[in-house]
Amino acid sequence: MELKEVTVLNETGIHARPASMFVKAAGKFKADIFVINEDKVINAKSIVGVMAGGISQGMTVKIKAEGEDETAAVDTLVQMINNRFDE
Q: Would residue 15 show up in a list of annotated catalytic residues for this protein?
């Protein structure tokens, strides 16, 4: 299992366009990937789940993955968040 914490920096949080980019990137990995937002555990490969997660600017979330490419998955998604989804 791989787990990292990251703070969402972009103005819109993980909504609409960033959520679409996030889910598309997560879908490229074989590992099971989750976003943990307070008490919510969200499937990172579910656009509905990610958009309904209410993840806004300034929130700290955990990215967790389990599977053969878990480290690459977590590193890639954390980097996307840190890069503000290229906004």
A: yes
Neighbour tally for 3: CB within 10 Å:
13
Name the residue range of residue 59's domain: 2-86
Percent of the chain at pLDDT exceeding 90: 94
The domain spanning residue 64 has which CATH number? 3.30.1340.10
**Percentage of the chain surpassing pLDDT 70?**
100
Identified catalytic residue from 4, 15, 62, 84: 15
Counting the structural domains of the chain, the total is: 1
Q: pTM for the full model?
A: 0.96
Give Cβ neighbours of residue 1 (< 8 Å, ≥ 6 apart). 64, 65, 66, 70
Pairing of strands 40-43, 2-7: unpaired
